[in-house]
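Quick one from the shared queue. A colleague (R.T.) flagged Cyclic nucleotide-binding domain-containing protein as missing a structural entry in our internal table.

Convert sequence to C-alpha cells.
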Amino acid sequence: MITTPTPSMLRALPAEHRQRLMHMAREVSFPEGTRLFEEGDRADRFWIIRTGTVELDMRVPGRRPAVIESLRHNELVGWSWLFTPHVWHLGAEATTPVRAYEFDATTVRTMCREDPALGNAVAQWVGDVLAHRLRSARTRLLDLYAPYGAGSAV
C-alpha cells in the first residue's frame, strides 16, 4: 500500500488562497464504510481530511475494486471536480470514521476563474496531487497484477 502523502493544501497554497478556500468549507462527518463517491459519478465536491482514513479504489473487471491509496489527515480527497467532464475517475470509501472539510466544486471553480492567481495555485496543487495519484495507481496495479519484478525497471 502506498503511504507517501499527497501534496497538502497547507504546504501547496499561499496563506491568502488557503484562507479564502477555508472560509467556504463545510465540516462533515462520514461513518466507517461510507462511499464518498463512485467511479463514473458526477464530481461536484471535494474534501480535505481532518481525521480518519479514506481509501481510493479503482474498478477492475472480474475482480474486487483495487485499493490504490489510503488518504489521511490534511490530504485532498477528489481531483476530478476540477477537470471536465467533472466525473470521478476513482471511487472512495471511509475505512474509519472520517471528519473532513467539504468544498462545493462549482463555487471553487468560479472563484478560480475570477481570481487567476488563486486558480493557478489551486490548479498547481491539484495537478501535483493528480500526478502523485497516477504514480500510486500504476505502482499499486503493478503490485497486484503484473508478474513479479515487472515494475522494477521503470
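Confidence is low (pLDDT under 50) at residues 1-5.
DSSP finds four helices and eight strands in the chain.
Added to the table.
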